[in-house]
Amino acid sequence: MFKIEYKSKISRARIGRLKLPSGEVETPLFLPIATFGNVRGLSFEEIKKIGYQMILANTYHLHLRPGTEIIKKFKSLKNFCGWNGSILTDSGGFQIFSLKNVKVFENFVEFLDEIEGKKHKLSPEKSIEIQLDFKSDILMVLDYFCGWPYKKKEIEKAVSLTTKWAQRSKIFFKEKINFKNHLRPLLFGIIQGGVYKNLREKSLKDLLEIGFDGYAIGGLGVGEGVSKMFEVIDFLVKKIPEEKPRYLMGIGLLDQILKAIKKGIDIFDCVVPTREGRHGRIFVRSQKFKYKIVNILNTKYKKDKKPIDSKCNCFVCQNFSRAFLHHLFKTKDPLGLRLASFHNLYFYFEFIEEIKRAIKKGKV
Ligand SMILES: [Zn+2]
Predict the structure, then answer these.
(1) CA of 11 to the centre of ligand 1 (A)
(2) What total number of domains does the chain contain?
(3) Cα–Cα dist 159/308, whole Å
(4) Same-domain status, 300 and 251
């Protein structure tokens, strides 16, 4: 299911291949976010054209809107949204615990859908059931995270609940899936534990005992600071078995991605390229593995004939000037958001491809 094809000689970076029901994907891998089943503002034709083979969709949002029953009528989320690559779905936990009206019980979580004002319950089993109904390629277990700032006691509770829910998710998953079928979807566990090494270690040990296809690091990038975050990553990666894929959830500035790949992380997701793009903030390469973020709304681009990034081969940089993009943003034409998001996602894809080439050349 996961095969490491190349290991760096100077870092813990590796290049691997994940075999999934919808096809194979190469790691290190960045997942564009398709919260409601689409990458905002872009079509899947464009996502595919860039080279992306896998997206992340959001169980919580899709379960509420359009609703799992509607997606089931299409037999899969892929059919519903017209994507023919692979899909990783998160469990919904992160979104639910960001809501105001949430009650956490031993066996489930109760929350209020703030748009429709309806109460919902989500159990670890229900989350898996929804993700199986979506026919996801990688399913995430429902985990519990109390949010930042936190006290050690709260993180202790988060770890213990996350382990219990992970256990139940695995049992349910095993009942529903034929384990002899090698094209089954994969189930990933999520390591919690905040910035506390002993709690991170406990969480990982518990999950390893249950046994998952891959291990995700959750609850980072929430306010603990970048150096603390990398301390935790460094500490954990060495303890996750080498043959298992490692997924760093929600972290996605490119310099952090490069650093995390060197530490041995394989999978990433982040809203940054599309969210920044929608606000007119565009990634521009300065030198190898270095970039800056340009705010296209700045008046200095009003007459600028240059492309956004003269080193970029994307169709936006090949066809449009900074002045035109500036004009689109100024006149609030949705094409501006689309072009900026496309370029940023292209930039991310190329950045990771370049890291892969550097790993093979022994430079990363
Ligand atoms: Zn470009």
Answers:
(1) 30
(2) 2
(3) 45
(4) no
Domain with 73 in it: 2-270
CA distance 261 to 242: 14
Catalytic one of 137, 206, 266, 269: 269
Quick one: 22 and 171 in the same domain? Answer: yes
Q: Which two tokens stand for residue 127?
A: 């989350």
Dist. CA 306 → ligand 1 center (Å):
12
Same-domain pairing of 203 and 317: no
Q: Are 138 and 89 in contact (CB under 8 A)?
A: yes
Cα of 338 vs centre of ligand 1, distance in Å, is: 12
> Integer distance in angstroms from the first to the last C-alpha of the chain?
25
Contact between 210 and 198 (Cβ < 8 Å): no
The residue behind tokens 């006149």 is: 331
Tens-place pLDDT, residues 17-51: 999 999 999 999 999 999 999 999 999 999 999 99
Known catalytic membership, residue 90: yes
Query: Is the per-residue pLDDT at 179 higher than 80?
Result: no
User: Ligand 1 center to residue 285 CA distance, Å?
Assistant: 10
Both tokens of 361, joined, read: 């050349």
Which of 90, 137, 206, 266 is catalytic? The answer is 90
Same domain, 360 and 211: no
Tokens of 313: 């081969």
Strand order of the β-sheet with 109-112 is: 102-104, 109-112, 119-122
Residue 113 has pLDDT above 90, yes or no: no
111 forms beta bridges with 102, 120
How far apart (Å, rounded) are the C-alpha atoms in residues 328 and 330? 5
Q: Band of the pLDDT at 95, cuts 50, 70, 90? A: confident
Q: At 342, is the pLDDT very low, low, confident or very high (cuts 50, 70, 90)?
A: very high
Q: What does the angle CA 356 – CA 238 – CA 94 come to, to the nearest 5 degrees?
A: 80
Summary mean pLDDT of the chain:
96
Same domain, 21 and 48: yes
- Last residue of one domain, picked from the residues 252, 270, 288: 270
